[in-house]
Amino acid sequence: MKEWAKRTPLVLVAAAVLAGLAAVSLASGDVRLSPAQLVDGLLRRDELAATILWQIRLPRVLVAMLVGAALSASGLVMQAYFRNSLASPGLLGVSAGGAAGAVVAIGFGWVGFSLLTVPLMAVAGALVATGAVLMLARRGASTERLLLAGVALNAMLGAVTSYVLSAHTTTYERTAQVLFWLLGGLEDRTWEHVVMATPILLAGALLLPLGRPMDLLSLGAAEAQSLGVDVRRVRRWLLGLSTVLTALATAAAGTVGFVGLIVPHILRLLVGPEHRRLVPLSLVAGAAFVVGCDLLGRAAGGLRLGIVTALVGGPFFLWLLRREER
Fold it and tell me: I want to staple 37 with a disulfide (CB 3.0 to 4.6 A). Which of 18, 33, 108, 256 is the partner?
């Protein structure tokens, strides 16, 4: 399988799958669109189809792509940074940090100040959580301790969310908005959410040249330094980009778990551990994965994205733990 994947331009295969899933997602819904209507709507030759696509479905699909690419790439970076296949933004509390920051902005009504309020607060919360994890990582914490630290961080940050929900300044409307947002979903996404998530493209582009340094870091800090890698600088870049990717994805779609754990593992099984292949592939495959999960949730009667990824990712994580134990 690995040899086949190395000979095949797997990024092109993933891109083709992504394009197919996006087309099905755009055509599906209460009003089904034929391929001809889909083309006419995208070209604005059919007024009804154009309204459905440009105002409702296209923003949702674009946000799904950006969120999937961000979470997948962020999970890949976290695993490379900690040299541990169990690391992911969700398990280590980074996603919860971003969620807590965004919930504070929504719950206290700061959203009206600027479109950037939610993503900036999400980045700030993710940075706090990342700093807490790093305090342990610098002391050479084991995988078990890192995971336990992630559990503690998730609990503490969950307490922040609970406080916001119970605060007397939080209105019923804001409470409902926060609850729906915490479930993770792509309902009612607009072009404002697309703009909010657009910096993901820049972060992903900055990540592409770091594939080789990530390969060398997997050998160990001393070995990478001897091969000409500025280890401290590369690690700062990796951690910063991973945090920004996770925070922006969380700000745009709420809490969506397990994407950063599932997609990098499947890709490693296909192409091996070489990050020069994995980085671009994770961006495209992550986008396809989230678009597919959203499509599956819609077909199942409107299940939110966070529920679908949890139903898929939970069993996968248990299988992974058993595999690591063996």
Answer: 33
57: DSSP letter? I
Question: Token digits for 228?
Answer: 């000409």
Nearest to 282 by CA among 200, 218, 216: 200
> DSSP states of 152-178 as a string?
HHHHHHHHHHHHHHH-TTS-HHHHHHH
Q: How far is CA 146 from CA 134, 141, 232, in A?
A: 9, 6, 20
When the candidates are 1.10.3470.10, 1.10.10.60, 2.30.110.10, 1.10.630.10, the CATH number that belongs to 86-255 is: 1.10.3470.10
Which residue bears the tokens 């976290």?
78
Nearest to 16 by CA among 245, 284, 308: 284
Which residue, among 200, 65, 176, has the nearest Cα to 122 in the 3D structure?
200
pTM for this structure?
0.89
Instruction: Quick: pLDDT tens for 146-190.
Output: 777 778 888 888 898 888 888 766 677 788 778 877 888 999 899
